[in-house]
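Tutorial sheet, problem 5. The three components below are modelled jointly, 1188 residues in total.
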Amino acid sequence: MEYVIEMLNITKEFPGIKACDNVTLQLKSGEVHALLGENGAGKSTLMSVLFGLYHAEEGQIKVHGNVENIKSPLDANRLHIGMVHQHFKLVHNFTVAENIVLGMEDTKYGFLSMDGAIERINELSEKYKLKIDPNAKIEDISVGMQQRVEILKMLYRDAEILIFDEPTAVLTPQEIDELMKILRDLIKEDKSIILITHKLDEIKAVADRCTVLRKGKYIGTVDVKETSKEKMAEMMVGRKVSFEVDKKPATPGSTILKVDKLTKKSDTDKNVFTDVSFEIKAGEIFCLAGIEGNGQTQIIEAITGLANFSSGKVEFNGNDISGFSIRKRTLSGIGHIPEDRHKHGLVLNYTMKENMVLQTYFTDEFQRYGFLKFDAINKKADDLIQRFDVRSGQGRESIARGMSGGNQQKVIVAREMDRLPDLLIAVQPTRGLDVGAIEYIHDQLIKHRDSGKSVLLVSLELDEVLNVSDRIAVVHGGEIMAIVNTDETTKEQLGLYMAGSH
Amino acid sequence: MEKRKSIFRNLHSNEKLLSIMPSIFAIITGLLFGFIIMLITNPSGAGSGLARILFGAFDEGSKSLGQVLYFATPIILTGLSVGFAFKTGLFNIGATGQFTVGAIAAIYVGVNWGFLPGKFHWLIAILVATIIGGIWGIIPGLLKAYRNVHEVVATIMMNYIAVYLVKWFILSNQSIYNQEKNETASVLSTAKNPSLFMKEIFKGSQVDGGFIVAVVVAIIIYIVLNKTTFGFELKAVGHNRHSAKYAGINEKRSIILSMAIAGATAGLAGAVTFLSVSLKHMEPLAVLLPQGFDGITVALIALSNPIGVIFAGIFIGYIKQGGFTMQLSGFVPEIIGIITSAIIYFSALSLIFQSFIKKILGKNGGNK
Amino acid sequence: MDTLYFLLRLSLFSAIPLMVVALGGMFSEKSGVVNIALEGLMLIGAFTGIYALNLMQKAGMSGQMLYIYAMLVGGVMGLIFSLLHAYASVNMKANQVISGTALNLFTPALAIFLARMWTGTQQVNFNDMFFIQKVGFLANIPVIGDLFFQKAYISTYVGILILIISYYVLYKTKFGLRLRSCGEHPQAADAAGISVYKIRYAGVMISGFLAGLGGVILIVPTTTNFNATVSGFGFLALAVLIFGQWKPKRIMLAALFFGLMRVISNSYSLIDVLAKLKLPGEFYSIIPYVATLVVLAFVSKKSAAPLAAGTPYDQGKR
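Model answer (structure tokens):
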């Protein structure tokens, strides 16, 4: 079998870190080749090297057996390599057609000429069954549609080798199914595909072979049909992974949080979320599950006070907290591990110790007459560092920006759990972390529950939802589809709810 | 080679020294740039011209040094205004407008409110100027907090609104307008800055207690920023508005207060400048006064550190004083404007310089 | 009626340079670089252009072409100085506001310094020989003839030409599409093989050229000696750009409005209605700035400003 792409012994260094260390990847003609690894394993870096965005320090790239020097995306284009990035590279106020032709525009007497391009886009979308309106603006079409634009962009450039970087992260289950169909159609038209992912189910569903990376190192390439999911997981993580979490059955107590008919209207005729109602008891982990962008973020913002809502009520320990400020909610016993730790969770330019008192610096413990008590702050920081095993070069004086993602998250977890909040809201607390850190966070959440407190978990990963939570509410389109007990449901059933069927 | 390494290692061990390297880089390249301009325009006088910039401020001993402090006073305060805003994540280009409205408020009170008893006259004049400056800062603050208007654009607009309003105010208030000289009337002596021993120390110079006021304000701002919960909140909002909000800090209030304090400080600068013991008058010209922009230079050199601002302000005052003696070498004092703007430009570039040093240090450190 | 035409013609003298400079700012910001250095670039253009005029006239040259030469000199010098801003903003990823401020302070100091070194005073003089009483038969067209083809300067036509060209370049050419993509989503442009650095340089250089040219055509119709200042017109052009929401046609309307306000502030006593109001001239001077703040307050939540304007693009971080 002929290799269309060979990336041989690629090494790419960033200041202080080897993102790829002697990695090899060989893509056969007409196959779907999965590139598997945890966050930070070097998958995206390796593909960026292939696409000409980065230049590798060592190693060589062969395309159809010829050694090539890919210096920019232009070279990649010339070699018929195309890439759909995880974060779409589309200009929001351009039309579909303008985005597709950007960089290789046709002109007539010096002026842009779009007619030919639109014709070709229509042909391509017909051929590959990628229905799209070339004159629609990007900001007006759905995420799934935007992904089609990215695919058409590659096809418009006659790409033969297609790279997909985590393409399913933003899609609904139906859209994922459609994408898988599209991938198979592409293979039929003699394209070769590299699929970057950390989801084993997808690999099983569509890939022929799979290359595994771990911490920048090449681990191996396997035939997907002959390899079990467990085996691939072990290769990815470096040890046997049990995705099961040890935990006792929940012993629910009194109601801690009661959300009643919460609704938020938006500028358009569709509500952000509608009539959201649920209760969380002491001693349980309650999960809001669903595909990204179905209103979870906004529901949490309404509960924590980061944003307002239109109607309904939020009761916490029997009190209506709808009118409370964020600070008042925090003080009344709500902890919040936010979705985006860089945007919300940390002040990245502050030191670790300053971040650790971010929610308490104004209490009598840490201030007197408006002056900060640095001794008390240092003591608290050292205590949390030790109890939560936070690691960093300069201890409590480390600047948060320079810390690893896992340790940054530990700072937040330590800060929020140290206050022993009656309700701990954890939004995608394990996103972007490696398996060790994920297990740690899960343990902490369960410990919090076992101490008689309650946890509200928001997660996009069905495995996490099923492993950690006691009860699950599935949201779709801003509405709760169903609330089920974890031990009485299955992945398949949750998947249906997530897709919007009752 | 060995020696170079050890120098770098010493630097490495001294974080403080490392952190002021960009400023030193900016100052030296700025001076060098000015020197090159002098070389091109008047090669024979360039050497002595540079010497004048660097040492001209010593010409008349303590009198000249007093003049240095006199020039430093307003720009330390506007530097504090800009630097404070920087620390809280805001770019206050409006210091010049706030300075101007503060100045005219102080002049008005200084000329007209003679009924106030003795020392109170000066205090009230200062206070009114500070409040008016604060209001001039609050408006962009409100626009930023509630309407997400970028403070750079808003403060630029406020600058021009200020200069036209002030021009109108002077021309339409006969009490403060000296038609003969086409400038503001002189303030009453009760409204002038107290000397606070400065006159006695630097005999013959124009410096007065305004300098002490500037130093005290710098110390207060330093304490507020670094030792108090209020400063903790302001800086948190400056670094990351979203996480500050998440932490329950009222980020809108912080932005508004931040701009108010920045504006108030610039307004105070206007007051101490125009209540100078040696008298200063404003012309109804609708131009942006330079003290506000010098504040940007000062804040950048000081990396917004309030204590650093004192020294940066004195430095700029120092080369300005040197610049006044330039004519003796056949140059015009505008060369100082060229140098200070070059310093701003190079400090914009110097962040890169800093990371460049870090890289060298990192490599040396790694090969130990 | 004559007074009205007189005032409107006068306001064109401010409106045209404002529009040209604001269009320059538009190219810079659409490419992703905020350019508050318009004031400084205008000034250096005005200074060098007028100085060139002074030299050419001393050499005994005359005719409308001199005006064109002066515009080109001003434009080219504006372009050269804008390279400083481009280098800081694009290569060095510096804070664009600081870099712009530095230029705004640098150019007046340099202009005064050079003027004094060369001429001994701060002023550069020239003979205004470019005033056109009537442009042939065009002057007889009703309204339009009165406005544009009587008592006019060729700079008015140059400005209108620049407006038309700007519109087509921005929306109808390959370069315009690429320029806008760099200001909205530079990563997308980069992935499409477009050099964000080059495009941003181009954007800033166009702004430098237009600002420099704008400086010359501001000075020539309004005075005969250049006093090393453009009196805040660069900042007013920035306001025009924002008021015009980064769109050429609206920029034109904003410039006309601001130009009119400028004229009224100086000659409101000529207009009966306004003279009766007895508002001071400064009131009309302030209107453009207040209007800009009001517009910003109402639109900036969904502002038309290019998304990536002001953010350095770092190829290493893509």
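Marking note: The mean pLDDT of chain C is 90. Full credit if you identified this.
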